């Protein structure tokens, strides 16, 4: 004997009714509340009309060249920050530590 699709659906519905009966009212309540919230949000979106940011005017695109990068000698370094090698401001000792002011 082979089970068909509709027979499996009937068995699943019966199992839910038998074993999930105490939880069905809460499930139906939360489903109804979710539908009410969804409907009110859809209604609110319809009432708001078209968004003010949505414009039908064409947008003109322009290419902006990148800003020039400052040279290493023109950059500002904060205390504790070491400048890259080859820049004015001191050289590291043999261990690679930055120069200390005494």
Shape type: elongated
Number of helices: 2
Output the structural class: mainly alpha
Indicate the proportion of strand residues: under 5%
**Major sheet:** none
Give start-end ranges of low-pLDDT stretches.
Answer: none
What order do the SSEs take from the amino end to the carboxyl end, as H and E?
HH
Number of strands: 0
Cα Rg: 35 Å
Mean pLDDT: 78
Helix percent band: 25-40%
Distance between the termini: 95 Å
Describe this structure in words.
It contains 2 helices and no strands. It is mostly helical. The longest helix is centred in the middle third of the chain and has 25 residues, at 24-48. It is elongated and about 85 Å long. The protein is 39% helix and 0% strand.
Topology:
Layout: H1 5-19, H2 24-48
Short account of what is shown:
The chain is an all-alpha fold and 102 residues long. 39% of the residues lie in helices and 0% in strands. The longest helix is centred in the middle third of the chain and has 25 residues, at 24-48.
Considering the chains and any ligands shown, give keywords for the structure.
mainly alpha, 2 helices
């Amino acid at each position: 004997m082979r089970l068909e699709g509709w027979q499996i659906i009937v068995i699943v519905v019966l199992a839910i009714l038998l074993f999930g009966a105490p939880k069905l009212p809460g499930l139906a309540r939360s489903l109804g509340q979710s539908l009410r919230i969804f409907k009110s949000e859809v209604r609110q979106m319809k009432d708001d009309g078209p968004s003010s940011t949505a414009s039908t005017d064409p947008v003109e695109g322009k290419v902006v060249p990148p800003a020039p990068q400052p040279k290493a000698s023109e950059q500002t370094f904060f205390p504790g920050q070491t400048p890259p090698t080859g820049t004015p401001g001191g050289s590291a000792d043999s261990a690679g530590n930055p120069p200390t002011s005494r």
